[in-house]
C-alpha cells in the first residue's frame, strides 16, 4: 500500500503543478487531489475506521468555495481524534495576511504554514515532518 498525501485547493492548475513537484520530491507518496474542504472532510471521515488508510500529510488551502480551509478546520475539531492525531496538516496558501498566520496558530493540530508557490525547499521542510 502506497503512502498518500492529500492536496486540497480549488485551483486546478496549481493542483496539477504541485502534484508534479510533490511526485518528483516525494516519490514514495501518491498525491490525491481535492477541490474543497467538504470533499476532503467526507473522505477523511470515510477513512477513519481504517486509520492506516488516512493520509500522512494534508496540504490545505484556505480560500476555497463550498467549504474553505477554516471551515474544514472547525469541522475537524469535533471529528474523530484519529484524524487530528495521525494526519500532518499543513496550511498551503497564497495568503500573506498576518491574521491568517495567527489564526492558524490557534489550531493545535496544525503542523505548519506554507505560502505559495510551493517550492522544492518547502517540500524538503515538509519531509522533515513526515515519518
UniProtKB/TrEMBL annotation:
PROSITE patterns: RESPONSE_REGULATORY (PS50110)
UniProt cross-references to InterPro entries, sorted A to Z: Bact_response_regulator, CheY-like_superfamily, Sig_transdc_resp-reg_receiver
PANTHER family cross-referenced by the UniProt entry: RESPONSE REGULATORY DOMAIN-CONTAINING PROTEIN, STRESS RESPONSE REGULATOR PROTEIN 1
Keyword terms of this UniProt record: Phosphoprotein
Modified positions (4-aspartylphosphate) in chain numbering: 61
Limits of the Response regulatory domain: 4-131
Protein name: Response regulator
Amino acid at each position: 500500500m502506497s503512502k498518500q498525501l492529500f492536496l486540497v485547493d480549488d485551483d486546478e492548475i496549481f493542483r496539477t503543478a504541485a502534484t508534479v513537484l510533490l511526485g518528483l520530491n516525494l516519490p514514495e507518496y501518491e498525491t490525491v487531489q481535492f477541490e474543497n474542504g467538504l470533499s476532503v472532510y467526507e473522505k477523511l471521515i470515510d477513512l477513519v475506521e481504517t486509520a492506516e488508510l488516512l493520509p500522512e500529510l494534508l496540504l490545505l488551502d484556505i480560500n476555497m468555495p463550498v467549504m474553505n480551509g477554516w471551515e474544514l478546520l472547525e469541522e475537524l475539531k469535533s471529528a474523530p481524534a484519529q484524524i487530528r492525531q495521525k494526519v500532518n496538516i499543513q496550511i498551503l496558501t497564497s495568503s500573506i495576511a498576518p491574521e491568517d498566520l495567527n489564526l492558524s496558530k490557534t489550531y493545535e493540530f496544525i503542523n505548519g504554514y506554507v505560502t505559495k508557490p510551493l517550492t522544492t525547499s518547502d517540500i524538503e521542510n515538509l519531509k522533515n515532518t513526515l515519518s
